[in-house]
Amino acid sequence: MLLSIAFCAVASAMATSANHIAANTFMDQVFDDMRVLVPQNGLDPLKAVPFTFIVKSNAITNRDLKANFTQGMLMGLSTLIRLGDCSYGTFGVMLKLGCYGTLFPIHAVINAEVTGDSIFGSSHEITTATSVLPKSLVLIEVVGYRGDQASLTHIGMVALAMNTTVIHGRLDLNAARFKDFENQLQDQLANQLTEIFKGTYGSLLQSMVRKTEVTEANFSEEFLQRMIPRLDWPAFLQAANKLGVGGDLPSSAPTDVRSDAAVLQAIHHALLEVEVMEGELICPETQRRFPITNGIPNMLLNEDEI
């Protein structure tokens, strides 16, 4: 059967990150899973928290501007992607992985009532669109220990740049005052994004991280030589790649592994040391899904399938 995991295999990828491919595959799987889970948990789109700020007068021909942002949406949290190669390292029994993701897909559209952009002080409504620029990044760091669950240790923005335009209505502000308006609006959105990553988004990612464990298993060359001919190699390779542990496996089943210790170790790890705690098995013939809970697959059929 093929193994399809609904949650990312964090510790698994770290345990085999002898090269960038495994680490990158892990992070790509994280973002692939988040594309599904983030909208399911109401985070994309996400209602913006209302806020108010004041742009001070800077000349006798204008007055203080009050901007009351009442409703709007943050979008794009489910479309983050990896940027560049991930870093990895081992410290004794501890495994650490760090990856950058681009925040570029994130944008916000928010309505506001503004008062004071003219000398007359009348109020009117505007709609602003703010986009995160490509150089903006989020850093995700994960630590795991052999034989134990992995843990998300850090998620946070390390660079954030935005661009704001008024897409409905008009703001009658000079260049300096519009820059102040733009900076305050972007500061408010940056604070909201920080809280999202620290709160709901981070909690969701943490729950994914803790779904897979890596355990030690005694290495037996004799056992592997007996087992390899019995494996459905394409299915085994697909499952290993899905978990992010297939980077060191050959594309076809080896005929003589005795001369390649590295291949034996890679097969040993993927076959015996990676334990899926939450996910599902999928039958390649019927596409029937069998859930895995606490590391135990439920292979029972429904009454109408017996």
Tell me which CATH architecture of the largest domain applies here: Super Roll
Give the total of beta strands. Answer: 17
The class by helix and strand makeup works out as alpha+beta
The CATH class of the largest domain turns out to be: Alpha Beta
Mean pLDDT: 80
Strand content: 25-35%
GO molecular function, one term: protein heterodimerization activity
Keywords: Signal
Protein name: Multifunctional methyltransferase subunit TRM112-like protein
InterPro entries: Trm112, Trm112-like
Would you write up a description of this structure?
The protein folds into 2 domains: 193 residues, Bactericidal permeability-increasing protein, domain 1, CATH 3.15.10; 86 residues, N-terminal domain of TfIIb (Single Sheet). The protein is built from 7 helices and 17 strands. The protein is elongated. The two termini are 19 Å apart. The N terminus is likely disordered.
